[in-house]
Amino acid sequence: MTDTQTLTARGGDWPDSAFLKQLVAVVRAEDGHGAWDNKTDPELLSEFILTAEERRDMPIMGDPDPDTVWRLEKFYAAIGLLIERQSGCMATPMSKFSHEGFGRMVLIAGKLVVLSKHLRDIHRFGFASWAKLAEAGEKLTADAVATIETYPDAARA
After folding, report:
1. Pfam families under this entry (predicted)?
2. Whole-prediction pTM
């Protein structure tokens, strides 16, 4: 099986998604030395996909590893940048979580909390497919943009 076939089997077909494009851009921005230049977008984001078997094999409780925390931060950074593209308001992510994998992520635009997400089982952070990853990012982005549209003065303060 080729790498492309393996990635398709893991995550399904690669959807045309503004969120996935933004997430790829965020991840590629971290590669200052060009180590990932030859990777395709699905290869670059492959660790965001967790199959049911992989999730089942993980312990119920566990400490998040630095790579998982990095992916979580990139996921929300991409949401923040997409919010800015769609609303014109910069949305900054802030997180606080324990070594046990519980916590909270907020995105703030001006004086407005545009997204507040309780986190649990961070060590299991991932999505069943590319479509689920795209759907989650786009839904959180749309909800945040709707909040900005409801309270534009606070978001632009």
Report:
1. DUF269
2. 0.90
In order of their start, the domains of the chain are 17-155 (1.10.3100.20)
- Write out the H or E segment, with its range, that includes residue 93: strand 92-97
What would the DSSP string read from start to end of 42-74? HHHTGGGB--HHHHHHS-SS-PPPHHHHHHHHH
Express each pLDDT in 77-109 by its tens digit. Answer: 999 999 999 999 999 999 998 888 889 999 999
In sequence order, the β-bridge partners of residue 96 are 104
Q: Burial level of 27, CB count in 10 A (0-12/13-18/19+)?
A: buried
Condensed to tens digits (0 to 9), the pLDDT of residues 20-73 reads 999 999 999 999 899 999 999 999 999 999 998 998 888 777 788 899 999 999
Q: Are 67 and 48 in contact (CB under 8 A)?
A: no
Can you tell me the distance from the alpha carbon of 139 to that of 38, in angstroms, rounded to the nearest whole number?
30
**Contact call for residues 25 and 18 (beta carbons, < 8 A):** no
